[in-house]
Amino acid sequence: MFRFDPTFLKLQKLIRMGEAGRPREGESNTPLVGGGTGDNVAAPQLFNSLPALNEAASYINQATSYFGSCFSDYSVEYGGQDSCNSLSHPHDLLRSASGGDGSSPVSVCVTPGQRCSTSSEASTSSASSPSRESSETPSQASNAIVTSNGVGFYGISMFQGLIERARRTVRGSADDIGWLQRDPEMPPVEDGTDRFNKILEDIGHGVHRLPNTLVYLLVPGLFSNHGPLYFVDTKTKFSKMGLACHIAKIHSESSVEKNAREIKEYIEELCWGSNKKVLLLGHSKGGIDAAAALSLYWPDLKDKVAGLVLAQSPYGGSPIATDILREGQLGDYVNLRKLMEIMISKVIKGDIQALEDLTYDRRKEFLKNHPLPRELPTVSFRTEASISPAVLATLSHVAHAELPLTNQATKLPVVMPLGAAMAACAQLLQVRYGEKSDGLVTCCDAEVPGSVVVRPKRKLDHAWMVYSSLNEVPLEADAAQVCEALLTLLVQVEEEKQRKAATKND
Is it the case that residue 132 has pLDDT exceeding 60? Predict the structure, then answer.
């Protein structure tokens, strides 16, 4: 028989105490998704609205215990003098589940590479060779690491990994949405909705207050290179009012930092040619690109830029981009990431990093290293898409098709049901996360800390800002008028900052 000194017996007792908390055959199992503490609870409540998922998770937990018990690792190793204290291979130490009568077989490995023998074999061997038993010292026995029948470490790890992956998939981006508002280091926002509504009403009555002493630069968003009419109506109406307005010709499917360099060059060129400051309005990713240009190159641009408007921009990140690209999310199960890589890289010759830069992880990292300058006048505009059945009949005018049927080419509108697509995405975000959005960007992620925020009551989806609809309501403001009102509000914010700065200096 094996004889152990008191030090080893204490170690074995502690191991058995840790195993006592695990449910055994015939005992009730604590459900995985229920309360309680201890190692036997692998994960918290997953999804309150889906009891079936909770029940399935409970079965997985019970299966974990059952299959894990099928794994056995029997080994007794004789190590050096401090092997019991140092535990240089802690992953080899598993919990003991042997009974109190000591009848569980224990296998013994005297040295690495030798065949392991069970305790019964060891008993027979010791009976025939008493001199070997007597030659063992207490120090050698106390340095032995014993593991017996119990829950296998690797079996438990495998199933707990599956459970954790399922939990991450179910949670999705729920823990990331609205992180800007929860960050105590971010400055608060100011509500400018009432001022915006007053300006928009005046514009509807023919009162225009945008000064011609500024240059207006419109920065388009993702995939704008494939939408010929992106911002075209707004630029045309601004030009009719005698304003210098330009659309930044950037490769929107490039990374944020690459576009930031191009926007910086645009600003410097416009200032050099007109000797005027630039007022920027960026839509969607265009707002992120413009903000990045000011964050990265503010010392060079602070005397050339009057302010920035971010319209429907995922400043905090986008749940759509995150769910497609993040490991363990829904995009993993249908190969959405691979499809997006093919579409962006091969079809439209872009960079997948353009989409990756809109994920929550990338946005958190970028804003930590390159925050927006506090002294920059900023207005952010967020909207909520309509999810009513009426949007199914909404068509957006995205391009023209020329048909040379006569001497003069005939232009036919190319329309797409973007309103229906945005409504479907907004419904998805509402059901899964309980968050309102414009279809692609949640309302809370579009509010830039420290900015004047505009929160209109009118339902406007993400595509409405740049593509005119064939179902426009005559009495409602169009996208060009909304852009004008946002820029006018920004001018007022800049004038207020200048007055405050002058008062502070006096």
Answer: no
pLDDT digits (tens, 9 = 90+) for 457-466: 999 989 887 7
Residues facing 329 on adjacent strands: none
Angle subtended by helix axes 193-204 and 479-505, to nearest 10? 130
User: Which residues have C-beta within 8 Å of that of residue 441, sequence separation ≥ 6?
Assistant: 284, 312, 313, 314, 318, 382, 462
Rg (CA), the chain: 33
HSE-up of residue 359 (Cα within 13 Å, Cβ side): 19
Q: Which of 450, 413, 438, 463 is nearest to 231 (CA)?
A: 463
User: What letter does residue 29 receive in the DSSP assignment?
Assistant: P
Helix (H) or strand (E) holding 151: none
The Cβ of residue 333 has, within 10 Å, a number of other Cβ atoms equal to: 9
Res 125: pLDDT: 46
Residues 6+ apart with CB under 8 A from 34: 41, 45, 58
Q: Are 54 and 170 in contact (CB under 8 A)?
A: no
Return the amino acid letter for 237: K
Mean of all residue pLDDT scores within the chain? 74
Beta bridge partners of 305: 278
User: Which residue's structure tokens are 């040619």?
Assistant: 273
Count of CB atoms situated within 10 Å of the CB of 442: 27
Instruction: Answer yes or no: is pLDDT of 283 > 60.
Output: yes
d(CA 170, CA 163): 11
The residues facing 342 across adjacent strands are none
Strand residues in 128-258 grouped as ranges (E): 145-147, 190-191, 214-219, 244-247
DSSP H or E segment with residue 305: strand 305-311
Q: What is the pTM of this model?
A: 0.66
**Half-sphere exposure of 20 toward its Cβ, with a 13 Å CA cutoff?**
7
